[in-house]
Amino acid sequence: MTTKQGDQASPQASASQPNESTVKSAPPPETPAAVLTRFRVIAAFWAVIIFLGFPIWWKTTSIYRAHLPIEEMVDWADGKACRPVFPLEIHLATPSMQSIEAQHLLRTTQHTLDDLNEFAAHHLRLKLANDSATASHSVDNGFDGAINAEGQAPDTALTVRLLAQEGLAAPRSELHAATTQLDVFYPPSQVPVPSSSNSPLSAFIAEELQQLYGEEKATIAHILSGHTGSLDSTSPRIAESISRRLRRSMKYAETYHLSFSLFTPGSEPSSWDIEAAVKEYLSPLLQAFEPISNFTVDTQVQLYANFAPTAPRPEYDETEAAWTFKKEDLSAFVNAAEWPLNPSIGNGPTINFILYVPDPSQSPLIVKENRASSWIVPQWGGVYLLNPTLANSKQGQVNPAHLSQDSLGPAFMTFSHQLLTLLGTPSTPSSLPLRLQTSIRIRAATLLLSASSTMGSLARLTESLPSIPIPASVASSVSTTLSHLGATCSHLREGRFGAALASARVAETEAERSFFEKSMVGQVYFPDEHKVAVYLPLLGPIGVPLVVSLLKELKRIAAGRKARRAAAAA
Amino acid sequence: MIDRKVMVFGAAFVLRLLLICLFPSLPDLLTGRVEVSTPVNSFKRLQEGLFLYSGNVSPYDGGTFHQAPLLLPLFALLPDAKTWPLPTAIFYILVDLVNAQALVTISESGQSINSRFHSAVRKHVRWNGVSVAAWFLFNPFTIATCLARSTSVFTASGILFAVSNAVSGNSVNAMLALGFASYLSMYPALMFLPLVLVCYDRRTQSPQAPKIAPFILQHAGLLLASVAGLLGLSFLITGNFWEFISATYGFHLLVPDLTPNVGLWWYFFIEMFDSFREFFLGVFWLHLASYVGGLTARFRRQPLFVITSLLGVFAIFKPYPSISDASLFFALLPLYRHLFPLMRYTFFAVSAMLYSSLLGPAFYHLWIYAGSGNANFFYAITLVWSLGLSILLADTIFAALRDEWEQDNPGKQGTEVRQV
């Protein structure tokens, strides 16, 4: 209790001011009206808290957890929901054979194939081409016909045409490089007679097919076994080449950005026929890859691009009459610090292709050990050293100012080859459509496994962290993923690999989206104890006086009631 | 007496006009200051909305305009502020003068001293209406708000007219004015309860006294009707009801724009974990709203004082406060001149506010332009500003309680403390 200066200034108050000792000894009792007012004040604050505060608290901090089909997700991850199988349908066209003979040949060849095959998930199914029209149809369409996504019939993986040819001692085969057709020439004498159970021709065909699909089979076995073991019988050489290929190739993505860059240390060449070159050499390939991934292409020309100051310089080699780089120095060739190579544009990985035109004073430039002019940078891109014919001018020899489409030809051939490697396309067989088909099957298997394991991880995550929210969008993504995984599996079983890949791509995208849902991971690192730190600093200071006053008020009411009861009893 | 009023109003008019003419860049400078212009009252944003509106595009399309749509046709009538700044400026000055006139009415009614249940102990310590108006008109915060052409002045006139009509007994007009203010800025609707009590106390002084519950319901209906009418008009203007509701009231409620201002919200919500954002939005709004019930119950005898202290609460705890809110609180404070002798921390509160109004712009400059400070510099100053305001507010409330207590216990002296 303090004396107020203001009171002295006010004559009314000071006139009625009693001496201080009275005040201190006897504070005036509270009037019932004051008690009622205080009750109303406290009630007003608590009414706001109870009728508005608690509902808001409940509404805004409750965690929404959509229902997820956990068991089904775990089944997919454990491989219980689907055993991927790859039945390849191979048509046998026998224009010069009797139907009976053809049937017999088919049976024996199939028998031999089944004997040879030790990986059950991947098997070849032979079928007679009904008539030549079907055969030629599928041959004409080549690759496109093999990946019809809507069709209910299985994709035709390969057409084998048996052609009789006089004057052959043993059958020989010829694979068309641009179509899915294998021509087998055989001496007419080797047509199997229905009585015999084996024939050199069927053994030959089975052997050929087995060889054709050997690498694919090994790769799929490698993927399905989870990169740990592979087929026992796979030769170490093939296993080595498969794992080497997988190490070099980019991780699968919906969209790849291809970036073509022309680097030169001088001022020339300053232009190139890049648009025509891409259209001529690359577009057909990209079109063929359309069912697997999308591509965007951008290009740039960078003049006065120097090597990194610490990078080794090329040396002149007298015997080769050329400037050379040592093989081990190639890793320092790309000046990552100064050359404007975008690590990634948008949301897909970038594959960089660098066309380097050396300075006239250092031309020609090659790799020392093998005189190569190009190399792959694993999971990053490719480099090609272009040594154009030098033009003479007053200053001596100079690079041409413009690179025509023809001079870019070899470089782009190399680039398309590098692109195939970077995308993980197998190196055999020699027919490009067959390799792309193989690629489709491999990708479908990879995506199927990856989406399944993402589902498993998501299931484990939501199980182990009961405090994270699961938005409805995640639940719908999960159900889309599961249905597309199912579709992939059944498409695979029926041999429709194009459709299977399309479903698998959707499944993979949705699975990634559900796993990386932003609102879900936000609270992963937010344990319950931290909530105290969130609530207390603000709500503590507000809450304590409110709670204390509420308790006091309750005590007063209880005391009043007791007193009244006591009075009533007395 | 009339001469004095004319002199004060004339001087205020001339002062503002002089400032604009002598320093032509001053209005634009002030318009850009974060202390004066917030996302919900900035004149710049209004012009953006106006440009879109005159181009027949939805004014809310750009995402920068968050003010009530009825302001647009009003400002479309005025000539372009860029090429002809004077008409707009004169319009704002007139609004200021009209607000001052409302203050004069409030002051002369004497409701702040003598009301139905209450009669102040120090009745003779008071200022007349013209002095109160002068305090308002020559307050640098008011002048800055006027020059910056902030649209908060319309909310302020809505509130002041509601109060002035209430104290003079025009309860219908009071509700319409409050409806206008609520339509513009939403938060004035919280003042409905004390305002209707002012009206009711005023009505009971006349012979036929109505019952309190129907009276409140009637006036609540009136308020709702006026707001609904204004919303209907806005719908006619914008054409897209939900777009304008979410761009204006949604913007007030959800506080998506965390541009620094003199308030306490922006820094807190920058730092807040995303998952708790909604919860704390609720807490902050409830905190703001919870004062209404408590203060009204405690000061049932002085509803006009509840309005004054609520304005102080809003100036501190609003999501987008500016100095215009503080100037409105300061405008009503001189009505309680008789409480000044009872206040204990005036020196501390005033120096805290002076300190922050001088250092605030300096620290903002250090943070944003010089780059030698960081956000904490400015936030610390806004904390000091809010602290100064809260001390002043708590002190006023204490003085009013003390005054009531002295009235109840004549000749006694002691302290009664009720923390808010």
TrEMBL record, chain A:
Where located?
Answer: Endoplasmic reticulum membrane
A Pfam family of the record is PIG-S
**Polar residues compositional bias, start-end:** 1-24
Q: In which pathway does it act?
A: Glycolipid biosynthesis; glycosylphosphatidylinositol-anchor biosynthesis
Give a GO biological-process term.
Answer: GPI anchor biosynthetic process
Q: Which UniProt keywords apply?
A: Endoplasmic reticulum, Glycoprotein, GPI-anchor biosynthesis, Membrane, Transmembrane, Transmembrane helix
Q: Name one GO cellular component term.
A: GPI-anchor transamidase complex
- Segments crossing the lipid bilayer: 39-58, 532-551
- Note down the stretches annotated as region Disordered: 1-29
Topology of the protein relative to the lipid bilayer: Multi-pass membrane protein
Tell me the domain of life. Answer: Eukaryota
Q: Which InterPro entries match?
A: PtdIno-glycan_biosynth_class_S (IPR019540)
Indicate the family of this protein: Belongs to the PIGS family.
What's the protein here called? Answer: GPI transamidase component PIG-S
User: From which organism does this entry originate?
Assistant: Penicillium antarcticum
UniProtKB/TrEMBL annotation, chain B:
Pathway in which the depicted protein is active: Glycolipid biosynthesis; glycosylphosphatidylinositol-anchor biosynthesis
Task: Give TM regions.
Answer: 84-106, 127-154, 174-200, 212-237, 279-299, 305-333, 345-370, 376-401
Give the source's domain of life in one word. Answer: Eukaryota
Q: Which InterPro entries match?
A: PIG-U
What biological processes does GO assign it? attachment of GPI anchor to protein; GPI anchor biosynthetic process
Primary location recorded for the protein, binned into one broad class:
endoplasmic reticulum
Keyword Transmembrane helix annotated:
yes
Q: How does it sit in the membrane?
A: Multi-pass membrane protein
Where in the cell is the protein located?
Answer: Endoplasmic reticulum membrane
As given in the record, the signal peptide range reads 1-32
- Keywords attached to this entry: Endoplasmic reticulum, GPI-anchor biosynthesis, Membrane, Signal, Transmembrane, Transmembrane helix
Q: Name one GO cellular component term.
A: GPI-anchor transamidase complex
Q: Which PANTHER family match?
A: GPI TRANSAMIDASE COMPONENT PIG-U (PTHR13121), PHOSPHATIDYLINOSITOL GLYCAN ANCHOR BIOSYNTHESIS CLASS U PROTEIN (PTHR13121:SF0)
Question: What family, per the record?
Answer: Belongs to the PIGU family.
Q: What is this protein called?
A: GPI transamidase subunit PIG-U
